[in-house]
Amino acid sequence: MPPWPPRSVDVRAALRGVERWLLPASCLLCGEALPAAASAESEPLVCGVCRLRWRPVPHPLCARCGQPQTGDAECLLCREWPAGVGRIRSAVWLDGPARDIVHRLKYEGWSRVADAMADTMRRLEPLTGRIFLVPIPLGARRLRSRGYNQSERIAAALGARLGVPVRTDLLQRVRETRSQTALTPEARQANVQEAFSAAAAGGMPVVLVDDVCTTGATLVAAAAALLDAGAASVDAVTFARAALPAMQWQ
């Protein structure tokens, strides 16, 4: 008697097909029905209207850290960054629906929303030319808890859209760090100091990928490790940027 189900059948794909037939796809954010897709994997998960509610980070920006600027005052956020750390650019503000979608990705297991994020990020300035995408790695404890690295999923989606390689072997988190959420800018910097190590980067132009930028402390610490390992340049992109009180950065 042949095995059941047949080995050629992807059981999970079959179950997803039944689920889509019984429960038509709806937007994760507003619940409105989504247009039919060729497969479950190609469903957008976030409708066009909700994507329009993501607020782009407005220009003019600090040429280096990417914080919006309102005048000619010196940007204090990146004034003391180490030499060699390049541009950080973010697609949208971390508020409303953008905050919701980041939460879905990080804490609710909806890894495929990384596709919608990558669609919004794909035209950010550093994502041009011959580059290598390097996601910010998670610590082992958070990786076990979440089951995947959200930054790696965003980087994979960007790489597929831009046709550029993703390197997950270049950067490692060598010690666990506290959550940055409730920390002051100074505490954030201390929290991630020497938290990363990098393999030999061989003169590569690297673009770091993460979900959110607040003060840039994590990205700067990771960039410093890559530069020490021989990267030719290190820029960074994130989906969202958390708004800071003006006194903290200008």
Characterise the protein shown here.
The protein folds into 2 domains: 1-53, no CATH class; 56-248, 3-Layer(aba) Sandwich (Rossmann fold). α8 (217-228) links the parallel β5 and β6. Helices cover 31% and strands 15% of the residues. Strands 1-6-5-2 form a 4-stranded parallel β-sheet. A two-stranded antiparallel sheet has the order 3-4. With 250 residues, it is an alpha/beta fold. It is globular, with a radius of gyration of 20 Å. 38% of the residues are buried.
Rg from C-alpha positions? 20 Å
- Topology as a string of helices (H) and strands (E): HHEHHEHHEHEEHE
Model regions low in confidence, pLDDT < 50 over at least 5 residues: 1-9, 15-22
CATH topology of the largest domain: Rossmann fold
Query: Biggest sheet, in brief?
Result: 4 strands, parallel
What percent of residues are in strands?
A: 5-15%
CATH class of the largest domain: Alpha Beta
Q: What is the CA–CA distance across the termini? A: 73 Å
Count of discrete alpha- or pi-helical segments spanning 4 or more residues:
8
Structural class designation = alpha/beta
Major β-sheet strand ordering? 1-6-5-2
Q: Which architecture of the largest domain per CATH?
A: 3-Layer(aba) Sandwich
Number of domains: 2
